[in-house]
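Hi X.,

You mentioned you wanted examples for the new student's onboarding notes, showing what a folding record looks like when two proteins sit in one file. Here is a clean example. The first protein comes first, with its sequence line followed by its structure tokens.
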Amino acid sequence: MNSIKISSALISVFDKKGLEPIIRNLVKNGVQIYSTGGTEKYIRSLGHSVIAVEDITSYPSILGGRVKTLHPKIFGGILKRSDNKSDLDELKKFDVPEIDLVIVDLYPFQKTVNSGASQDEVIEKIDVGGIALIRAAAKNFKNVFCVSNKSDYGSFLKILNKSNGYTSLEERKYFASKAFNMSSTYDTSIFKYFNTYEKFLKISETNPRTLRYGENPHQEGSFYGDMDELIEQINGKEISYNNLLDIDSGIHLMNEFKDSNPTFAILKHNNACGLASRKKLLSAYKYALAGDPVSAFGGVLISNKEIDFSTAKPIHDLFFEVIIAPRYSSKALTLLKTKKNRIIIIQKKHNLPESSIRSCLNGYLVQEKDLRTDDIETLKNVTNNSPSNDKIADLLFASKISKHTKSNTIVLVKNQQLLSSGTGQTSRVDALRHAIDKANTFGFDLSGAVMASDAFFPFPDCVEIANNSGIDSVIQPGGSIKDELSINFCNENNMTMVFTGVRHFKH
């Protein structure tokens, strides 16, 4: 039962676009067509004969169209086993027509949800008969060909044209797998709409974006999701796996500064190597670059404001992989596009996900994203001296960067500029020493700088090292049983320290 000629077809689709060439081919090959409602009328409008489902079932479409195909004479014709004599005898006894092809396009449930429709409108777009037809046809792939998505019309038509209406077992099995994928995706979207009660992890994404490779050339990589909702690429080579990780980090980091003065950030390996806020974007870029001009090479650039021509000119001289901004002036864009491989991205206004998922062992870790941003209202001054308003601004600036930097991390800031950071170290002391060494390498004066830590200090060693380098203000979560040791050191050395009460680990 490998090769089967299609002799009868049930067609019931929501969207008729692209269906006509298939209808024409089926008619040419003498296929008997059965159909419902609007699809039946459409086929007749093309000048072709068609048998209405209700003429088979002797029941009209009822309940406002909720029940059309749900009948033994339809599902018996789909689920029959052609090599089973008992099945064939029963079809004959009950006058059930055999069906070799099922074409279904489901009600657009998710599209209706996304449109902001009312609950009643959404409910009516939950397809029942269509999904049942798909499951039945796919289950019986040995005898039935199932087309479950209008995106497959083209490939199905090629099969028809190639074989004069014959289909192979492998082709039917392949389309059955696509049908079950469609069914699971459809049901997942419905579940997510209804579920506000239970914690379940259901991921069902179709149409993966194949990447050149994963983190390394020997690894395959794909992106699942609707990237176009959030970003629009307007120039450059294909976005890579690593590009996407940096883009994600950049967008989440800059989200902390979406309502701030012009702010520019440069990222490398998911961490900010430069970031500054100024009254003018050009100045913000120059100060961001000064933070680490070495790491900036081949990095990802992101701005919270439109890239103008005056800012684009020095940016153009830098080698970088990606630039992201909400807008670009026409002159800036013309200049930046002169390097054809440079990836230029427009960031759209769109809500970011509120949870994160990552594989772990033989399962997944799921958590709420760290959406807490430290602010002046939540700060607790724990030292004798209180930081000035300017210091508080720098402390919060540093805290935002620390939150989006790999742990363990120490971030050094002065005058709304990232001076340096120590990232991903196994020791907080090592992170601080690395940050100080890096700042010194690029000639920064740490006198009057502030320090942010993503977690508490278990000992006073970090504040002592910071003080010896000229740093005079610290922001940290607090919560160590030995907090008093660090507080006492600050008081003895005229330093200020504030607690946030919130840890920002990023592993």
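Then the second protein repeats the pattern, sequence line and then tokens:
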Amino acid sequence: MRLGVDFGTTRTTVAAADRGNYPIVAFSDVDDDVCEYIPSLMALDGDHRVYGFDAVELARQGAPHLRSFKRLISDPAVTSETTVRVDRRDINVLTLLTEFLTYVAHEIRTNSSVSQIPDEEPLEAVIGIPAHAYSAQRFLTLEAFRAAGFTTLAMINEPSAAGFEYTSRHRASLSTNRQQILVYDLGGGTFDASLVSVEGTSHEILGSHGNNLLGGDDFDQVLAQCALAAAGATFADLSDSDMDDLLEQARDAKEALTPQTRRISLTVGARDVTVPVADFYAHCIDLIDSTVETMKPLLAIDSEGGEELGPHVAGLYVVGGGSQLPHVLRELRRRFGRRVHRSPPTAASTAIGLAIAADPESGFTLREQLSRGVGVFREMQSGQMVSFDPLLDAHLRVSTQDSVSVTRRYRAAHNIGWFRFVEYTATDDQGVPRGDVLPYGELIFPFARELQDMGDALDPHAVSVRRTEDGPLIEEKYTVDRHGIVHVAITDCDTGYTVSQSLGSK
């Protein structure tokens, strides 16, 4: 069965590709109530880790638990060895992700609206990823899905998938003059915005900006702070369990809000408090402002310097569970007018788009942007200096169907090469990366044949970098696969000696 799987910060949503239809997969919780999601939650039952619906029940009973663990892998420093501490236990993050996705696969097969899937039939999935996910996050997500038993067809940026859902539903809104949509994707833990150009079923990402640490969780925190203020208390006044309980109340109350709601009732410790909805919304403005500021580069600038939707934009398409808050849509319409539309299946728009991408009969195609450039610092002047070489531009167009490669050839000028790869969002006028510059991996390549002959016995740290002038012919090949992961292979064309690495995997 072909599926679209949106692994979310607070909820994981699945849609199926079914003969041109893309129904949301429904699950039964512990009370046999139907839910169109699986809670992204882990709880401890003694020495055992429990996930999803069972974890919700344990958490309500006071068991140690972990919410929003997707945010753990948004840290650029995360690796496959990273651990998280829960109730004095260190849990490997990759193991945590794999176990949760294994639970998701089991629920799909045994406890869902598509549970008639034969055991021998693979779960073939297109999976979503935040548009501005670091490469380490992409690698860990892909590896966790693989280890959980999914066959991953492609990894697509979440707002790009929502663009598919828009086109399938609102194709008539596009015209010759307005063939673009601006996707506003506010999820449980992340915010992304992408400008999508649409021609028939062909989609191309013209630009993408995001914030990996802004989402519905932050609105929950704001409501909890409002409740604390009403109670004359602070976070420090509450125990960990009372704080968890307050945040859960805030999340439930926020999700239950309607345009007609005027007051929110919460319990802070043993005290009942009431928060006027208007006060809560007033404190949310900074978060909404932050989303607009993030997508500012994708907006047009009017004659007075304000932001507006571009003349070729058919609409601002609002998706993601976090955008179900009534004030988000209200505020966006106040700023951008009638061209603001919210997806009917707001929280499932991405999953539906991913299912469309998984369906070979849909005809939908996509050209993405890397969103982050890739470059390398190289040794110069016998190791006394380094130079920066941009390899892959952040605006490079990549296909979800095919890989893209860049190849370089040169004569080595040193006996050994130290390649220090980085990700970056921008460069200055001299081509030097600035702002968001993050380590992306390191590769050591012996250019001198005698060093190559040493094999595993080579200690590169014991080798002094020296200039050798006319060295061997070297080929560097950088390949961006359909998941957005960059692979590097460096080869001595004279000897055939090769070193390769998937960047972001270490």
